[in-house]
Design goal:
By secondary structure, the protein is an alpha/beta fold. The protein has twelve helices and twelve strands. It has three domains: 31 residues, no CATH class; 131 residues, Response regulator (Rossmann fold); 128 residues, Response regulator (Rossmann fold, 3-Layer(aba) Sandwich), CATH 3.40.50.
């Protein structure tokens, strides 16, 4: 860190002087307050970079009587979605000047969640973000009546617990509507585990589009999110393929399906179209490049922290926010051969 001409570490007032703004404006920028113009924000950020300013979190904690720490409770971090959701929340928390204490659950149960939350309360965290994408999680959090703000990430929340989520059902609709528009009438779905909120919501989105189009809803198989399960399911499907298109619950399972189809001589998209979900970085390098649904995990993290900070710093009421997904069309989808 650079020192000022007086031989001390730069302070908020030094940044304000270099940027030509008030120290209140610098404080707003540092705390990511929305009521700052882009031009002013750039000036302040340039001054921060020039001086090498870093805010004194310990001093701020003494003034605010807060720990400046957010607890993040997570599970299934070996999976792409939960891992990247955690990264998004951690990045947003750090940008807001908060430390992050992470508790990763080995198993998802009421007792495990309660124990981890109790550990956070012993640390005097200012708030808790919960990244446990299972149907019962919200009910457990509601019953705990915690004295700090809680945001259930991956959930719409409730009257007692705030929520921040990507609209999984809308993402599934984007995928299946794309296939319907291409002319497909036999559209299968390889779903994730039904006890996962994301898996259930994506399956419901698939069903909703098929109902609206008057199409068969029976072509459903459940996997476990892994490429291995996608491969095993793909081998079974390849031997008696009836669908002309398949919506796969995530990109990892889609990768396994592609491998199985290639081995069986089933051509994608000539014989069957394939759509994934997540848009993991490797998806555009699959053979063929995978049409999929993109989730903005960084935006989800920002939205989570916006809600958290509003509740911590101004006592805002419980609320929820929804991030829209986006369809990314690549070479794994096309009109069915009979069209």
């Amino acid at each position: 860190m650079a020192k000022t001409s007086k031989g001390r570490m730069p302070r908020l007032e030094d940044v304000a002087k270099v940027a030509g703004v008030s120290h209140q404006t610098v404080s707003r920028v540092v705390n990511n307050h929305p009521n700052v113009s882009k031009a002013t924000r750039k000036k302040v950020e340039a001054a921060i970079a020039e001086l090498g300013y870093r805010r004194n979190t310990a001093a701020r904690s003494l003034v605010t009587r807060r720990s400046q720490t957010i607890g993040v409770l997570a599970s299934e971090l070996s999976q792409y979605g939960p891992a990247n959701t955690l990264l998004g929340v951690e990045h947003a928390a750090r940008n807001a000047g908060y430390f992050v204490s992470i508790a990763a659950l080995r198993e998802v149960s009421r007792d495990a969640i309660s124990d981890a939350v109790g550990h956070f309360m012993d640390q005097a965290v200012d708030g808790i973000a919960v990244l446990v994408p299972h149907a019962d999680t919200l009910a457990v959090l509601e019953q705990m009546n915690l004295p700090v703000p809680v945001v259930a990430v991956g959930s719409a929340g409730s009257a007692k617990v705030s929520g921040a989520m990507v609209d999984q059902r809308a993402g599934a609709r984007l995928a299946v509507e794309h296939l319907v528009k291409e002319g497909h009438r036999q559209i299968g779905h390889i779903a994730g585990p039904p006890d996962w909120t994301d898996g259930a919501e994506r399956a419901e989105g698939w069903r909703a589009v098929l109902r609206e189009a008057g199409l068969d809803e029976s072509l459903l198989v459940e996997g476990d999110w892994s490429a291995g399960s996608g491969y095993a399911i793909g081998r079974r499907l390849a031997s008696s393929l009836t669908a002309t298109a398949i919506f796969v619950g995530n990109d990892q399972m889609a990768l396994g399906v592609l491998r199985a189809f290639t081995e069986a001589g089933v051509r994608v998209p000539d014989d069957v179209s394939l759509v994934g979900f997540d848009d993991q970085p490797e998806a555009e390098y699959f053979t063929p490049p995978l049409t999929t649904v993109r989730q903005d995990f960084e935006e989800l993290g920002r939205r989570c922290m916006d809600i958290m900070l509003d509740e911590i710093e101004s006592g805002a009421a419980v609320s929820s926010t929804v991030v829209a997904p986006a369809l990314v069309v690549r070479a794994s989808t096309a009109a069915p051969a009979a069209i």
